[in-house]
Amino acid sequence: MVLQMGSPAPSIKVEHWLRGEPLTNLQPGKVYIVEFWATWCGRCVAEMLHLVQLQETYKDSGLEVVGIAADEDAPTAVEARTRLDAWLTEKCSDLNYRIAFDFTGEMKKLWREPSFSVGIPTSFVVNRDGHIAFIGHPSQLDEVLPNVLNGSWRTSNKAKAADQERIATSEPPAREQALKKPINERFWAAVGKQDWKTASSTLEEGIALMPDDLNFRLAHAHLVLHRMHNMRVGLPVIRQLVRDAIDRNSEDWILAALDQLFHPAHDHSYIPSAERFAMGKELSERILALNPLQGPKYRSYPAVARYYHESGNKDRAIELVELALTSLDGPEPVPDELKQHLLPGLLQALANYKGEKVCYGTLCAAPQSNFPAVPKRARPGRKQKKGG
């Protein structure tokens, strides 16, 4: 059954209440914001201050905010709860609303899955009569909440149109995620046992079901090439991934293929050298053509630079990394948090390619002693190993 505006609100079934008094059921006459969030979700954390302000502003109007932490990333419930509690103590000492913890997935089944709410943060607003009034991003609450509180929102044409649009937009990816879930679970269970044969066949099943899903395609290429080292299967897989990436003219697909062939975290000695570089050349030329002179380059150019450096064109590799650094201060603003995340890797690559210390403002990097030097316009021959 679809959970939408006008539906009775589901129950609150959680394992623990970490902040505030336990809430056994939603009280008639109150308006609730039920907010799904996680500590690892930057947008969720940014919205917490917003929710604190809303709770303070509308507490006398009967508003109750309830945060549901149902997506914490930890091996066990005890670890997740301990980490979450410590995070709340450090980051949110002045929190003025309830926080509940659910590791079982019960709240997802009751609230998010029936409403096609795939991502977080997601806000559910429950009207005074216990029915859903709004489902969406918390950034919309400033407009929606006053109308929910005065009783005018759910009967408005704007509310009805917004909910219809939400369902039309959210239903396809939610149904796709539901199809992928059992495949992902079987795949990761096989990986945990290092049962590569089962893991591979599970991914092949996923690809047959959703051939346009890049995550399945990428996981399969990585598994057969870099875990199994099975070139009999792996070479046709990477060839097809490269071909499809070129045909789609998609930056995401091209970068995915390029990383399988040239990312330094992988051992590429199992892949025939001449074919690997031929594929790298085609992918690199295509992605350079996709990026206009003024476009951001911090995402794609470092991957292309790896190909050029390994193929012996050190000067081109240096040029591309320098262009990526320059793009951080280009006309399109880069969030400071993202910039600080990217800078160390870009500087380290530049230092390695140049073989000398490089700096960007106060941040500097020296070449790594274990970084392989590639002779200009030449590649050392490597013995090819046979896959299984």
Would you kindly provide a written description of the structure presented here, covering whatever features stand out?
The chain is 52% helix and 10% strand. It has helices at residues 42-58, 77-91, 106-112, 141-149, 157-192, 196-209, 214-227, 231-248, 251-262, 273-290, 301-310, 314-327, 336-354; strands spanning 16-19, 31-37, 63-69, 98-101, 122-126, 132-136, 358-360, 363-365. The strands form two sheets. A six-stranded mixed beta sheet has the order 1-4-3-2-5-6. It has a two-stranded antiparallel sheet with strand order 7-8. Helix 6 (196-209) packs antiparallel against helix 7 and helix 7 packs antiparallel against helix 8 (231-248). The two termini are 48 Å apart.
Topology:
Layout: E1 16-19, E2 31-37, H1 42-58, E3 63-69, H2 77-91, E4 98-101, H3 106-112, E5 122-126, E6 132-136, H4 141-149, H5 157-192, H6 196-209, H7 214-227, H8 231-248, H9 251-262, H10 273-290, H11 301-310, H12 314-327, H13 336-354, E7 358-360, E8 363-365
Parallel strand pairs: 2-3, 3-4
Antiparallel strand pairs: 1-4, 2-5, 5-6, 7-8
In short:
The chain has 388 residues and is an alpha/beta fold. The chain is built from 13 helices and eight strands.
Can you tag this structure with a few keywords?
alpha/beta, 388 residues, 6-stranded mixed β-sheet, two-stranded antiparallel sheet, globular, 10% strand, 52% helix, single chain, 8 strands
Separation, N- and C-terminal Cα atoms:
48 Å
Number of helices: 13
Which residues sit in consecutive blocks of at least 5 with pLDDT less than 50?
375-388
Shape: globular
Structural class: alpha/beta
SSE string, helices as H and strands as E: EEHEHEHEEHHHHHHHHHHEE
The chain-level mean pLDDT equals: 90
Rg (CA only): 25 Å
Number of strands: 8
State the helicity in percent bands. Answer: 40-55%
Order of strands in the sheet with most strands: 1-4-3-2-5-6
| Beta-strand fraction estimate | 5-15%
Largest sheet: 6 strands, mixed
